[in-house]
Amino acid sequence: MTSPATLTATALARPARAPGSVLALIVLGAGCLLPFAGASPLLLSLLVQAIIGAMLATGVGFLVRQNGMVSFGHALFFGLGGYVLGVPLAHGLLPPEVAVLLALVVPALLAFLLGLVITRIPGVAFSMLSLACAQTFYEVVLKVRTLANGDDGMSVTFPARLFGLDVGLLQDPRSMYLICWALLAAVLVGLWLFTRSPYGLLTLAIRSNEERARFIGYETVVPRAAVYALSAGVAGLAGVLATFYNGFISPDMMHWTLSGSALVMAVIGGTRAVWGPALGAVVFFFFKEIVGDATEHWPAVIGITLIVVTLCAPAGLSGLLARLFARRAA
């Protein structure tokens, strides 16, 4: 049987080159020093939100990279992480530790089950099905007020300690920044290792030529569903962190506009490198803050910026930086 590594020789999405990975490691290391460099609590709070958005965008970009599939419904898993955590705590249904664990597992499990069905249908059909699934859950949490107060959302009260740790650390900008940064680094490294694994290479081979992979004996549906579940798990983790930090859940966490924003972040950053969408998310977040303060027409400005980036840097900002870094290294 042909190995996954052989199958991926002609894959459309090739692993990021070493210079890009070195650049990502430098940035990740430097980011840890920011709280100790005199950054204000306001800046750190903005960065926490940006990193949470980076996790969501990373999940979306990873799905594009490995499966070649564009999801318009990843906000479902982001919001599900928040609701599975917040609702049991608000109603006293589960011990807090169990609620946290379920909030991390349920989004990935749901995505795997959905993926066994919808990842069979590539292209635009998959995108529309992912959007339909997300909007279905959005309508449920919007209309059923007994669940989580409908469109008004609800505050989430946490116990003083979870797993023996002070929950206050998750609501302080300085400590939460370090936690989110460390988790983002762990996610990026974990996904990067996955892309180098035999199973990761198999998913790239399936993306490149599913018919050939199936012909020589490889199962193609389960690997696609597994990638979908992994990307959803990252989005769910982002939702859990957002709920801890904001202490609030609302249907907006599942709205399609959040999925669209995450996709824009991934395109700006580029999906060929695992870390690209995270870079795009940080750039998008601060660009939105700056432009939003200057004009009420910021969506148009962001749209124009997206067009320019796509035309000038098809591989996104990560691809552009990786090329520049490689040239200087040479």
Automatic annotation (TrEMBL):
It comes from Xanthobacter flavus. One of its GO terms (molecular function) is branched-chain amino acid transmembrane transporter activity. The keyword Cell membrane applies. This is Branched-chain amino acid ABC transporter permease. The chain crosses the membrane at residues 20-37, 43-64, 76-94, 100-119, 176-194, 225-248, 260-287, 299-326. Keywords: Cell membrane, Membrane, Transmembrane, Transmembrane helix. The lineage of its organism: Bacteria, Pseudomonadati, Pseudomonadota, Alphaproteobacteria, Hyphomicrobiales. It is a multi-pass membrane protein. GO terms for cellular component: plasma membrane. InterPro entries: ABC_transp_permease, LivM-like. PANTHER family: ABC TRANSPORTER ATP-BINDING PROTEIN, HIGH-AFFINITY BRANCHED-CHAIN AMINO ACID TRANSPORT SYSTEM PERMEASE. It is found in: Cell membrane. Pfam families: BPD_transp_2. Its main location: membrane.
